[in-house]
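During the reporting period the student researcher (J.K.) took over the structure-prediction task from the postdoctoral fellow and processed the backlog of single-chain submissions. One of the processed entries is reproduced below for the supervisory committee.
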Amino acid sequence: MCIVITILGALSMTILRRELIPSISLPAVAVIATNPGASSEQMADMVADPIERNLRTLDNVAGTSAVSQSNVTTVLVEMDYGSDTYRAASQTDVILSRMEDQLPEGTNTQVITGGTGSLPAMIVSASSDHEPFELVRRLDIAVVPDIGSVEGVATVDVLGAPEEIVRLDLDDAAMAEAGLNRGEIISALDDAGLVIPGGQVRDGELQLDISIGNAFADIADLEGLTLIPPGDGATPVSLGEVAQVQRTTADATSISRTDGRDSVTLLITPAVRANYVDISEDVTEILDSSTESIGGNAEFTVVFDQAPFIQESIQGLATEGGWGLLFAVVVIFVFLLAVRPTIITAISIPLSLLFAFIGMLATGTTMNMLSLAGLILAIGRMVDDSIVVIENIVRHLETSKRGKFATIVHATSEVAGAVISSTVVALLVFLPIALVSGIAGELFRPFALTTVVALTGSLLVSLTIVPVLAYWF
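J.K. obtained the following structure tokens:
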């Protein structure tokens, strides 16, 4: 049994998913809709209202609300607690795709689910001597795809990078002379540069798609766009004749600097049930190998990483467990004045911990700060049952005239009731915490479950393994 617990416990410890805090899923789905140039009233009437009406058809909807501003509106769908928010988010995507025709042209939507899974696994700052545009281009080629392919990574967002735009400064005098107005130029820009399907052509077994129109490749193409003023006999003019066309950057909505240098930020978001430590190790390896390919004295700085906190918590558990084991061994030896019973009792701590790891894997509990806190708390209680059993066995072996096997069985059964009752009382203290519903339950359930499993393991070890070891040693 010792061997089985040791092997399964060691395997479970390596398989357990590690995260900073327990995964908490808030019962809500948010939709952020943007439409540049729309007023708050337009966003409310033409965007928020239709989205709300359609999203009320989702399952387990408790209520909806919307906040609209110029250019953007946020629709919040509150779900009944316990609902599958990831399924609701998928259904929301389907509903939004079906109602594209109901929304104003140019409306973009994004679905967001709340919870700890939305927290980034890592935030990395990238800086170099390159211009921001060039740095972002190199990152998109050499770094972002590699990080995105790491197992457990959901998205990689680049923040703080200036957005490149094409700016048109219209010449009112030239427009008037050509007989054009702003609306006609906007319509021409909307129609130009579009590539639309034009049918198919078959050549034997080969089927070719036909496209009509050409997309703008550079500023010269845009300047050469032909504008035809209304009216008979109007002279066509190019866009470059009535407007100054230049490539520039949009107004910055975020600025990123690291150690005084302009930089861009890589926001790495984990997928559901991702292993944060594995993500950190793989991403760090990619960053170390990508510095030369970026060039320009490129430097990556990890601004935030959940993995070190997790690893420190695990190291803290090992340290606390080691001290607990040491103190327990010393105290047991002082009272028993025997080496073998002391060693037998000391074995109960690692075996109980390994049993707890098996239980954590079976119940789907992750290794996080709350579950580790439960293990640390249980360490002080793990040796209690074993101490009672081994002390009674030693006392009976010194005074009993029965055989060794019968004496150990009698000594164990004599205190089994007291050991079981004391452990059950401790279990009844923590077990109700695991049954609490709501966010509090999601947060503290790993703590309670881990403590219950660890104490159950210590009880089983004290009544089964400790007597066997006492017989053989």
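The committee noted the following: Residues 168-196+210-249 form one domain.
J.K. will present the remaining backlog at the next meeting.
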